[in-house]
């Protein structure tokens, strides 16, 4: 009986100590949020960037939380830490990415833009920024319709933009991105992983480097259409179009659609 009482006393002491967790060490509860609009993360990254896989993991967690069609990411391989394609290396750096890299004055990677609000940020800030942005009411709606010619690899996209609020002017940007690309990546331990999978990689701009002008009155609708060609080596089943409307106030709305149904 004495052994039993001693055992019970020890258990009670252990349970009591478990509740004495410092308030700062407790998990922070983030209440569910009603999605008002989608959010665009422009992730400036590179294949020799040590910490860029960490930023990719941050995006993956946000997409698991909110959905990949709500938090829409584009990986912009650019700058000196990115690799250009060669005969022996699958490099993901593009001239378009370098153009954006220079325009936004990227000084370190990983860094990114969240709905183009507040300038460049690092991945540790993205969760709170997404949480705030996702609650804002959408003033624009974008729908995409895509057709493909499997023989010529020519594709056509029609974007229908509905203004849900007051009159505005800005630009519509159409980007082509690719998922599931196996290519070299330097990891946080300094080693290179040849089997690394890169997702939402920016391949090209469909309607100009900075998009095309759009202006809509209250409750108005407009259609924009464009043709584009896939390059050799791009896998159509992994390709998507990311479309967003932006102006000096940032990204008003963003959407994405796969070129072919899964």
TrEMBL record:
Keyword match Signal: yes
Signal peptide region: 1-21
Pfam families: Omp28 (PF11551)
Species annotation: Prevotella histicola F0411
Superkingdom of source: Bacteria
Lineage: Bacteria, Pseudomonadati, Bacteroidota, Bacteroidia, Bacteroidales
Keywords from the UniProt entry: Signal
Name of this chain's protein: Outer membrane lipoprotein Omp28
């Amino acid at each position: 009986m004495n052994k039993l009482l001693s055992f019970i006393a020890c258990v009670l002491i252990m349970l009591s100590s478990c509740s004495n967790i410092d308030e700062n060490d407790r998990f922070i509860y983030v209440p569910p949020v009603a999605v008002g609009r989608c959010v665009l993360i422009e992730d400036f990254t590179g294949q020799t960037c040590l910490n860029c896989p960490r930023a990719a993991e941050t995006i993956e967690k946000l997409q698991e939380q909110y959905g990949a069609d709500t938090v829409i990411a584009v990986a912009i391989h650019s700058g000196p830490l990115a690799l250009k394609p060669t005969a022996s290396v699958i490099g993901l750096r593009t001239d378009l990415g370098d153009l954006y890299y220079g325009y936004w004055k990227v000084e370190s990677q990983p860094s990114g833009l969240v709905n183009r609000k507040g300038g460049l940020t690092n991945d540790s800030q993205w969760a709170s920024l997404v949480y705030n942005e996702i609650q804002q009411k959408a003033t624009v709606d974008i729908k995409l319709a895509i057709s493909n010619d499997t023989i010529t690899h020519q594709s056509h996209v029609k974007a229908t933009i509905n203004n849900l609020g007051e009159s505005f002017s800005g630009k519509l940007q159409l980007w082509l991105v690719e998922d599931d690309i196996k290519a070299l990546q330097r990891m946080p331990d300094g080693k290179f992983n040849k089997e690394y999978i890169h997702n939402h990689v920016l391949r090209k701009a469909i309607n100009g480097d900075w998009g095309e002008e759009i202006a809509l009155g209250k409750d108005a609708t407009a259609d924009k259409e464009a043709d584009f060609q896939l390059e050799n080596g791009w896998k159509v089943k992994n390709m998507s179009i990311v479309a967003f409307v932006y102006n000096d106030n940032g990204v008003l709305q963003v959407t994405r659609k796969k070129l072919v149904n899964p």
